[in-house]
Write a structure and sequence with these properties.
Helix 9 (about 145-155) packs across helix 10 (about 160-205) and helix 12 packs across helix 16 (about 350-365). The protein has helices at about 15-25, 35-45, 45-55, 60-65, 80-90, 90-100, 110-115, 120-135, 145-155, 160-205, 205-210, 285-290, 295-305, 310-315, 320-335, 350-365, and strands at about 1-5, 5-10, 215-220, 220-225, 230-235, 235-245, 255, 265-270, 335-340, 345-350. Strands 1-2-6-8-7 form a five-stranded mixed sheet. Strands 3-4-5 form a three-stranded antiparallel sheet. The protein has a two-stranded antiparallel sheet with strand order 9-10. The chain is globular and about 80 Å long. The chain is built from 16 helices and ten strands. It is an alpha+beta fold and about 375 residues long.
C-alpha cells in the first residue's frame, strides 16, 4: 500500500465491477481483445438468458450503473458476497445508488422516488446537461415504448422485483460461463496486481497515479479529479482502490460517499494484455522458444501476413513435409497457430493475441518480485576426446 501521509492506494482483485463490465461488453462490440471471449460466451448463453439480458438492461451502459448498487459492499467483495449484499439491500438504497448515476440535478432522484415526477419529466428536465448519457442509455429522445424507459420505470415503481431479476440474471451469467472466465482471469489479475503494488510502493501514490493514467491527482492535501470538479480533502478519503481489469473498456471509475461523509474511490484499470478467453492458456517460455528458431520465426511472420497450408509453407521454404510438420507442431504447442479447415486443406494463421499477451505475461512474471525464479535446465553432451 503506497501512502502520502494518510492517503493510501490499495490494489485489489475482485469481480465486483468486472462482472458488470463483462455484461456490458457482451451486449456491445467494445474491446478487440474481447472478441474471442464474446463469441464463446454468446454461444454458451441460452436464448432465454440473452432475452432476459436485453429486458433487464436494454442499453449495455445500464450494467455499470447496476454495479453502483454495491457501493457499500466490502472493497474486495467476492461473487457470493456481492449477490448476498444486493439481495439484502433496501429498495431505497438500490434505487438511489443506480439513479444517482444518471440524474444529477438537485432533487431529481428525490422527486422520482416520491412520485412527484416521472421518468419522462425527469429526462426532459435534464436533457440539456445530460444529453449524451441519456442518449447512450436509450432514454433520450424519450419514448414510453422504449426498452430503457420500461426498465427505469420498473426500477422506480417495482424495485424489489427488478432487483431480484437482476440478481438472478447475474447468477445465471456466472453459472453459464463467467465463473470459468473468472477462473482463467483471476491468476492474471493477481500477477498484474503484484506488479502494480510493487510500482505503487516504489514510486509513491502521486507518481503511481500519474504513471498509471488514473483520472486523479494526489498530493498532501487530498485528491482532485483531473477532469471535472471532484475534490476531496485527505481527511475525508476513506480509501483509494485500484483494480486491474480486462473489461473496463470505457475507463469508468467511481467515488462513493459513506454515512460519515468520507469518500471511497474505485479505479478499475484496463489492461488489454489480460485475456478472459478460457480457450487460451499462455506460457511465455514456449512462445519465445518457438520463435527463437530463425526458420520458425520466418514461418510465423509469413502466416501472420497470409494464412497458408503446411504444403504451401513447405514449398515456400523449400523444406520436406516432416520438417514443416515439426515446425508447425512447435508453433501449435505454443498456442501460436490458428487453424481453419477448408476444402483445399487446413489453413494456418498466426494467433496475434497469443503473441501480444506473451510479452505482457512474461513481464508480469519477471517483474512481480515474488516467488522463486524458474530453474534453467541445460542438457550437455559429453565432449568427444580424440586420440
Amino acid at each position: 500500500m503506497a501512502k502520502v501521509d494518510n492517503v493510501a492506494i490499495d490494489i485489489l482483485v475482485t469481480p465486483r465491477f468486472e462482472i458488470f463490465y463483462a455484461l456490458k461488453a457482451l451486449q456491445s462490440d467494445e474491446g478487440e481483445h474481447l472478441q474471442g471471449w464474446r463469441r464463446e460466451m454468446r454461444q454458451r448463453l441460452t436464448p432465454r438468458i440473452r432475452s432476459r439480458l436485453t429486458r433487464v438492461a436494454p442499453s449495455p451502459l445500464m450494467w455499470p450503473l447496476l454495479a453502483d448498487s454495491l457501493r457499500d459492499s466490502p472493497p474486495a467483495a467476492g461473487f457470493t458476497e456481492m449477490m448476498a449484499d444486493m439481495r439484502g439491500m433496501s429498495d431505497d438504497s438500490f434505487q438511489r445508488a443506480v439513479l444517482n448515476g444518471v440524474f444529477k440535478a438537485p432533487g431529481s432522484v428525490e422527486a422520482l422516488l416520491s412520485k412527484q415526477s416521472t421518468i419522462a419529466a425527469t429526462v426532459a428536465h435534464e436533457a440539456e446537461s445530460q444529453e449524451r448519457l441519456l442518449s447512450l442509455l436509450g432514454l433520450y429522445p424519450f419514448s414510453i415504448r422504449a426498452g430503457s424507459a420500461a426498465a427505469f420505470n420498473r426500477l422506480v415503481n417495482d424495485p424489489a422485483a427488478y432487483r431480484e431479476e437482476v440478481v438472478n440474471l447475474v447468477v445465471s451469467f456466472w453459472a453459464a460461463g463467467f465463473a470459468e472466465t473468472w477462473g482463467t482471469l483471476e491468476p492474471q489479475l493477481r500477477d498484474r496486481a503484484r506488479a502494480m503494488k510493487h510500482a505503487a510502493t516504489r514510486d509513491g501514490a502521486p507518481q503511481f497515479a500519474k504513471m498509471s493514467g488514473l483520472p486523479i491527482a494526489i498530493d498532501e492535501t487530498g485528491i482532485r479529479s483531473i477532469r471535472g470538479t471532484t475534490r476531496v480533502d485527505r481527511n475525508d478519503v476513506a480509501g483509494i482502490h485500484v483494480i486491474p481489469s480486462a473489461f473496463n473498456t470505457a475507463s469508468f471509475w467511481a467515488a462513493y460517499r459513506d454515512t460519515a461523509g468520507k469518500t471511497r474511490f474505485f479505479f478499475p484499470l484496463l489492461d488489454t494484455s489480460l485475456s478472459p478467453d478460457t480457450r487460451i492458456a499462455i506460457e511465455p517460455s514456449l512462445v519465445f522458444s518457438a520463435l527463437g528458431d530463425t526458420t520458425r520465426y520466418a514461418m510465423a511472420a509469413t502466416i501472420a501476413r497470409k494464412p497458408m497450408t503446411s504444403v504451401e509453407l513447405a514449398r515456400a521454404f523449400s523444406v520436406s513435409k516432416p520438417t514443416i510438420s515439426h515446425h508447425v507442431q512447435v508453433l501449435r504447442a505454443a498456442g501460436l497457430v490458428d487453424e481453419t479447415h477448408t476444402e483445399n486443406g487446413t489453413l494456418l494463421a498466426l494467433n496475434r493475441r497469443v503473441l501480444e499477451r506473451a510479452s505482457g505475461a512474461a513481464a508480469r512474471e519477471m517483474f512481480s518480485g515474488e516467488g522463486t525464479s524458474r530453474s534453467i535446465k541445460r542438457t550437455r553432451k559429453p565432449n568427444k576426446s580424440h586420440k
